[in-house]
């Protein structure tokens, strides 16, 4: 069946901001879809609020709308664009929910838009748990016993029938939000009521526990001709009970016989057909009882999912690309496999390697959050590794994590750990559980004990035992022979692990020299979908060690073009996300165009950079010094390496710069010495002094006494942090001596090798973020962003506006002069990000990062200038002047002198607080501070600030209210500033309620308001209230409040007071403003929404107006 | 790979030698080296008679993970001449596992080799074709030139008549499940256990006959249909089976052939066969049905193929016939259908084991073919 001729224009819905459970994988799939649809000659419109995506680059669609992914805004886009069809299966749950809403409210019918890729009935059959279970049973499959409940009464009755423990799963939430396993009645009451709340249809499934069963997934695709292929099977290392996003997963399945695997395949295909996914991809999850092999179907995603991205990268089979082709009418046998070029997409991939994915967590960012792994996903990213065996791939994946532990034996065991204590630890799943498996075995537990405690399959346990045995052999051998070393490498041991086992080798470098002397190097194999049956045309490589010293490497010679290696950013984590991948992808595109061979090195399966189409060659490898060096070696053997780019992937590759350079690798762009100028406090201080630029007073201390002395000197509050960090890890604002003492006690544990920095904290300053490009001669100011929250909130968590809304021309000139001085002083070649604080007309330099920042994509989109592309060309020798001439950069002017009528873009951060609970089941605090906590961002763009801000809020949290009740409770120091915006809200018709103290001030200023009680009212507090007044937390939880304005009280330590109010707001999903500036911005936004002038304009039109205007 | 490894070598006809460790039995074995790309089903593969005299390379790197059970054998023994893997499992894991794969290989005296870079080996076979080879370990491991000479002296697969080596010594009957609707004579050229099972499940009483059976033997069974099984070797050598097929076609008895059986039917219809460079051995191979255009993912194991064009029609001594199926990867003939006589065959394995069950309905097609010639012999006999 060839392409349909009745579709000429498709609207693709993206997935919005990166959140836990819905990450960069949907940029990867959406980008592929847009590419394919345009190749097929269709007009493509796109809506996605996430500016850090490749898909929202203007060249990927005909009309790109950076607008909130909500039914209201999608309708506006449909009205403006009038597409024939809507493709929503590549944008995760967000896009799918949006499509369902547009079907239900009649918009699709009204505009004659056909939903392609999946029909509504199929979506509902797949996602409605009861319908789905009925279908599974109809086709002869088995399911866990369960019932769908709509009230707590129904829940209680079901639990009485099924018996505890049970699993609770709310319907229509993503990433398993709100779901979990409960063992007791109390847990059941709490989680089920929360689940009913989280579910948009007030529905939860109560299910028989299959805890401890083996867990599997199948990725399937079906075409309009009813052909089905299984793309990949995935086996979870962690047994049922841990969300698959939080599990270590392995492809292909390792412990199934053909009989069981084919049974799974048959049931999967039957379910897919019965659910009626007409074309495209789907993911089905299974559980198998390890005792008797009973197999039950758990759930299905009738769309491209996180696992699809993993399966695509694991097999080389581009699911999203093929799904897009299937959606417009092609069949699997009509689509050719890009990798072999001769086989069709109906050829099921077969692997001759093993793929391991390891999740990356960020519990350290959310103190108090329960780190137990459950059926609610909590990880923020993942790394994937490919090896020729499970141990090899596991070793690579573990060292890709970039945590303190880089594989077994690289950190000391917890003090006093015994086999028994470790087995105990294994009984509840936590991050790092695999380390406990190894430790338990090493400390004497039997494999059976480990299996019983952890539920991990004996085969996996034996593989870890094997790694342990090889490790012991390495440790105990009198001499490390080439043979043993090769065997250790083949079992996945890194040089660092071997160094940890053999201290006399003088560390990682010593192991490497020994390896080099003995000629022990990896070979590079190819991901080819067919286990070498056909020749591969795409150079998608991974390293492997073979026992045979003469093993073959498959990197083909490339004598024609100089190569540039781009080091990616590794697993997504808070502080280093998709924004860096964006810059890496841009570099690859620009360098290919400029005649280089672009070589990508990365280990994050969710990204566009690890798509084999993005670069000329892809190495799916950990971003450690050892692994990168081997890639460089392989590339040097096959041609000329002109340079390695470390500046675009965030702190990960930047941290390798010096060592790579020392090893003779040509690092291009800002040289490692210059990077040190910016990162080393002393050196950077000299740069600032030399240029006459003020910085907040600071000092460096290695002890509490030292820190105290500095703080006394410069005055509290102070900002304290360890040196060399990204995303403000370990950073705190400290208001007094005892908090300082407390901080030092904790922080010095974090990084003993680095001192603590103590900075003067500029209260109430305006924070400014700048991205610039410098070639040694000329500075190109990419963009100047003004933070909406005051300094002290991490720039990654703060909303910001571009162009800056309150800065004057002289401020901007000062920013330009300072940035140029810093760029010159540091010695930047390429990108530079500087953060300033403006207080009392003094522009303080807070910090400078000689690399691409997380705002590069936002700036690029807001100003229509491809900053990362330009940066990669500057790094490889072009001048800004030349780039202006070639049209890469504007002929004149830059982001510092945007026209007055330029559109205003607002970036807003998206925070994951509602994902985490304390072990007692409470929410974690949603307060913002100097430590970054957001997982992603959205952009709102319009002609005026208010509208742009309103859009940014709609895109990130759901819309600002236009009527209803606002609750206000603010710190004393903020009361004066908040009178005006709150009065404005009252004038707009909002009902205002406040705590006693705040209410008093508001009433005195003529704002009518009601009084509510705080949950825990201090008897001594001046704000004692009528005990009959409603309790604010209950009021919020009952839905009586539409917006919260709550700035933190007090000024020391963990600011607890507003904690329950804020968590209640997060639970209800209502806007919760925690800063004065945020409140003013929200009022602007609400006014704009009430005026009703919130329209949509495509990025292409906005950028055209920018270009014409400048 | 363990610390105490016994060296072993895989020696190819062209002189290339891959070193590794002994796996399974020690000693020496010779055969044609072929690679199999299935990621599951090594037990079924090893016990598939079609692998007679072949040294099988598993492209999946970790083998033996689910051990060896008592249910999944496709015949009475392991048939492969030798076994080449990268990483053998140490601890099998499956609730059905009875023992380890290495134990089973040793017990059945199958010489294997592990720790080989199987991907490099597979690429070599892909580029240079399936070729003669030997696995040598223990006492068998001798000087390189001696091993190469031994390989060079071994017989080639082209021209090999192997069906006689794998066929059943005497006839046996697999009773129908439930009511007996039909009786089928299955010519055992290397039949797999799952084939009679699939037939029996459809109410067919299966009479499995030795490869040397005559037309009279077939008729004596009172067969409603004749089945030609899979099997090893060069189809060109099978003049007896080909003549038997012609006799069946002449009598218009419904006939269904699988794999080797497809090649035999093709030759009976006048088509030629050829040795493929490295064959199809895997469980992921897409086959297109020319009539419907639909794709089935199939299990395959063949080193020879029929000549013919996808969808092509041709005249045969038994009327018009057509190439009903072809491989989506390379256009290889994957099935035949006679227009004027009730006969069809496929090059792949609808009985799977190992492999996907997409093509399973072909057994129903065979039933339909017999149904259209009612009343059946089995029913007549009962009446």
TrEMBL record, chain A:
Binding site for Mn(2+) 2: 299, 301
Record protein name field: Carbamoyl phosphate synthase large chain
Catalytic activity, EC: 6.3.4.16, 6.3.5.5
GO molecular function ontology, one term from the record: carbamoyl-phosphate synthase (glutamine-hydrolyzing) activity
The keyword Cell inner membrane is assigned to this record: no
Residue ranges of every copy of the MGS-like domain listed in the record: 958-1110
Residues that, per the record, bind Mn(2+) 4: 847, 849
Binding site for Mg(2+) 3: 835, 847
Xref: Gene3D superfamilies: 3.40.50.20, ATP-grasp fold, A domain, ATP-grasp fold, B domain, Carbamoyl-phosphate synthetase, large subunit oligomerisation domain, Methylglyoxal synthase-like domain
Family: Belongs to the CarB family.
Organism in which the protein naturally occurs: Prauserella isguenensis
Record-listed ATP 2 binding positions: 721, 760, 762, 767, 792-795, 835, 847
Subunit relationships: Composed of two chains; the small (or glutamine) chain promotes the hydrolysis of glutamine to ammonia, which is used by the large (or ammonia) chain to synthesize carbamoyl phosphate. Tetramer of heterodimers (alpha,beta)4.
CDD domains in UniProt: MGS_CPS_II
Taxonomic placement: Bacteria, Bacillati, Actinomycetota, Actinomycetes, Pseudonocardiales
Residues binding Mn(2+) 1, per UniProt: 285, 299
Residues the entry annotates as binding Mn(2+) 3: 835, 847
GO cellular component, one term: cytoplasm
Binding site for Mg(2+) 4: 847, 849
Purpose: Large subunit of the glutamine-dependent carbamoyl phosphate synthetase (CPSase). CPSase catalyzes the formation of carbamoyl phosphate from the ammonia moiety of glutamine, carbonate, and phosphate donated by ATP, constituting the first step of 2 biosynthetic pathways, one leading to arginine and/or urea and the other to pyrimidine nucleotides.
Chemical reaction(s) catalysed: hydrogencarbonate + NH4(+) + 2 ATP = carbamoyl phosphate + 2 ADP + phosphate + 2 H(+); hydrogencarbonate + L-glutamine + 2 ATP + H2O = carbamoyl phosphate + L-glutamate + 2 ADP + phosphate + 2 H(+)
From TrEMBL, chain B:
Pathway: Pyrimidine metabolism; UMP biosynthesis via de novo pathway; (S)-dihydroorotate from bicarbonate: step 1/3; Amino-acid biosynthesis; L-arginine biosynthesis; carbamoyl phosphate from bicarbonate: step 1/1
Any one GO BP annotation for this protein: glutamine metabolic process
Keyword Signal: no
Domain Carbamoyl-phosphate synthase small subunit N-terminal residues, every copy: 6-136
EC number: 6.3.5.5
MF annotations from Gene Ontology: ATP binding; carbamoyl-phosphate synthase (glutamine-hydrolyzing) activity
InterPro entries hit by this protein: Anth_synth/Amidotransfase, CarbamoylP_synth_ssu, CarbamoylP_synth_ssu_N, CarbP_synth_ssu_N_sf, Class_I_gatase-like, CPSase_GATase1, GATASE
List of catalytic residues: 259, 349, 351
Residues at which L-glutamine binds: 50, 231, 233, 260, 263, 301, 303-304
Subunit structure and binding partners: Composed of two chains; the small (or glutamine) chain promotes the hydrolysis of glutamine to ammonia, which is used by the large (or ammonia) chain to synthesize carbamoyl phosphate. Tetramer of heterodimers (alpha,beta)4.
Family: Belongs to the CarA family.
Summary of the function given for this chain in its UniProt record: Small subunit of the glutamine-dependent carbamoyl phosphate synthetase (CPSase). CPSase catalyzes the formation of carbamoyl phosphate from the ammonia moiety of glutamine, carbonate, and phosphate donated by ATP, constituting the first step of 2 biosynthetic pathways, one leading to arginine and/or urea and the other to pyrimidine nucleotides. The small subunit (glutamine amidotransferase) binds and cleaves glutamine to supply the large subunit with the substrate ammonia.
Protein's name in the database: Carbamoyl phosphate synthase small chain
Naturally occurring in which organism (per UniProt): Prauserella isguenensis
